[in-house]
Each structure stands twice: as structure tokens, then as C-alpha cells.
């Protein structure tokens, strides 16, 4: 069973979500504030964190920042803050996905399924070697010429989506939907910025990439 840490201070909503998730065979731990969330994340070692930003003791952004100092477990934000600034702030500090309240339970379940697909490498293959790059999907690590490369959570998520579908075209809409969520499917400038950052970190010659290939007008492809 997939272990979910649900961080929500509204008792009625927490109870309803926990019941629904358990009925879908998720193992749910509920935390009502940021301190409990950090303790439970360390002790229960969930597979996915579902996190409300408006917590009574500490802002959810700080919870994400603290979690990202030691874990790459997927974090899905649930929040009534639907402004772009809040979304960008959450994603920049390490959230993997952002769902605005009110939301449909089927949408949340779909986001959870997408997050859990990213946990386990496909076909049991956890390490991908591409020239002098070594990409460890299970450990969320990448190195070049035996030197570890630090990626932001968003950079890693983008690379991971492409590596899991290596050799095939991943459309811009697919990448934006997987990494930033459905509301960002037309924000192609995000991809240009983050692909440029990845190429600077991973490619020997960023101006002539071997692995992170642009298919003009269509999307991107990772070549091993």
C-alpha cells in the first residue's frame, strides 16, 4: 500500500480525505500542523506527502523547505491560495504538484497516481547511463564523470520525466502537465528556462546538447 502523509488542519476535511484515500487502499497518516508533519515524515517515511499550506503553527512553505533538506519524496500541495505567486513559491522550494481548493477528489487521486508512478522506476531499472552521466532514478541523484550534480527539485522532476520516457518525444504540454500541473500547459517559457539550466549542468557543450534534445515546435527528448 502506498503510504500517504496528509497534512491538513481542518478536521472535517482531513477526516473526509483520509476516509476516501483509505477506501482506495492508501495507508494514511494525518498530521494537523507543521511540527507533526515533520515528525511523522521522519518516523512514518511516507511515499507521498499531501500538504495544506495554511497550517496553524508554521507556513507550509517552510515545511516543504525543511523536508527538502533530507528527502525527495513527492509533495502535493493542497491550498486555498490559488494565486500564481503562492504556486511558484511552493514549486520553487520543492513541491512537486499544486492543487487549488476547492478540488475534485478524482483530480487529487489522479495527482497521487502520477506521484506514485514516479516513485518506482519502470521495469525495475533504477540507474540510467548516458555517456558520462549516471542517473539514479531510485535515489534521485545524477552525476557526471563521477561528480555529483546538485539539481533543484523542479529540475530533477523535469529530467526524471524525460529519462523515464527516454528515446521518445515528450510534448511540451505533457512536460508542463507532469511537472507543474494542468494549469501550466501553455507556459512554455518555463520549459525554455529549466531546460537551459539542465543543459548547463548536465551537457558537456550546452549549445550542442547530446542528451537533452529539442524537437522544434513539438517538445523534448532525452537520448542516452
Question: How is this structure best summarized?
Answer:
The protein is an alpha/beta fold and 224 residues long. It contains 8 helices and 12 strands. The protein is 40% helix and 22% strand.
Q: What is the helix/strand order?
A: EHEHEHEHEHEEEEHEHHEE
Q: What percent of residues are in strands?
A: 15-25%
Q: What's the total helix number?
A: 8
Tell me the distance between the termini: 33 Å
CATH class of the largest domain: Alpha Beta
Helical fraction equals 40-55%
CATH topology name of the largest domain, in short, is Rossmann fold
Q: Got a strand count?
A: 12
Proper CATH architecture of the largest domain: 3-Layer(aba) Sandwich
What global shape is seen? globular
CATH level-4 homologous superfamily of the largest domain: Response regulator
Backbone structural class: alpha/beta
Return the domain count.
2
Task: Give a description of the structure.
This protein has 2 domains: 2-117, Rossmann fold (3-Layer(aba) Sandwich); 122-222, Arc Repressor Mutant, subunit A (Orthogonal Bundle). 40% of the residues lie in helices and 22% in strands. The protein has helices at 11-23, 34-44, 60-67, 84-93, 105-117, 153-164, 172-179, 188-202; strands at 2-7, 26-31, 48-52, 75-79, 97-100, 127-130, 133-136, 141-144, 147-148, 170-171, 212-215, 219-222. It has a 5-stranded parallel sheet, with helices on both faces. The protein has a 4-stranded antiparallel sheet with strand order 6-7-8-9, with no helix packed on it. Helix 2 (34-44) packs parallel to helix 3 and helix 6 (153-164) crosses helix 8.
